[in-house]
């Protein structure tokens, strides 16, 4: 069984943030990305990213809640740091 978390960050710079996140993580884990999509493969789960003209969307999957929280926390900490100058904060959908 898999558990899932999603988030949408409204920004016209979604492609830029997608690339920043993927480039950052590619030095640590397996990453595949292009201009509008990306996938980050952590040991405990994955996070797929999709950028369009209005938002960056994240779709994270793991095998259990604890590992999903690790993926979510990692993505949030890094996105919030990168998005700070534009006053963007990653909030997970409920």
TrEMBL record:
InterPro entries reported for this sequence: UCP028291
Pfam families linked to this entry: DUF2218
Protein's name according to its UniProt entry: DUF2218 domain-containing protein
Species whose genome carries this gene: Allohahella marinimesophila
Lineage summary: Bacteria, Pseudomonadati, Pseudomonadota, Gammaproteobacteria, Oceanospirillales
């Amino acid at each position: 069984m898999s558990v899932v978390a999603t988030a949408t960050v409204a920004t016209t710079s979604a492609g830029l943030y997608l690339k920043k996140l993927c480039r950052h993580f590619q030095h640590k884990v397996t990453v595949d990305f292009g201009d509008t999509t990306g996938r980050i493969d952590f040991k405990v789960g994955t996070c797929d990213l999709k950028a369009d003209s209005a938002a960056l969307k994240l779709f994270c999957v793991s095998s259990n809640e604890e590992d999903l929280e690790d993926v979510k926390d990692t993505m949030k900490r890094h996105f919030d740091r990168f998005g700070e100058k534009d006053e963007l904060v990653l909030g997970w959908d409920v």
